[in-house]
Amino acid sequence: MRVHIDALQCEGHGMCAATAPDLYDLNDDGYATPTDFEVPSGSESQAESGATACPMGAIKVLH
To answer: InterPro entries given for it (predicted)?
Structure first.
């Protein structure tokens, strides 16, 4: 499972990191980074929760 974050859609609300801080990091400006990463085994539900929390729909979980 992979996560893709559309950097053009991300507005830096930080809800992904608030919901799943072990997976989603924010840069100094508050934007999610990195924009593409592999989800560690056992963290799939956190990845989904962080994606769902994004008010801009900038996060896609790719199965």
So the answer is: Fe-S_cluster_ET (IPR051269)
Instruction: Classify strands 25-26 and 32-33 as parallel, antiparallel or unpaired.
Output: antiparallel
- Residue 51 domain boundaries: 2-62
Map tokens 């799943």 to a residue: 20
Here the CATH number for the domain that contains residue 28 is 3.30.70.20
53, containing H or E segment = helix 44-53
Q: What element of type H or E holds 62?
A: strand 59-62
| pTM reported for the whole predicted model | 0.93
- Please state the domain count of the chain: 1
d(CA 63, CA 54): 18
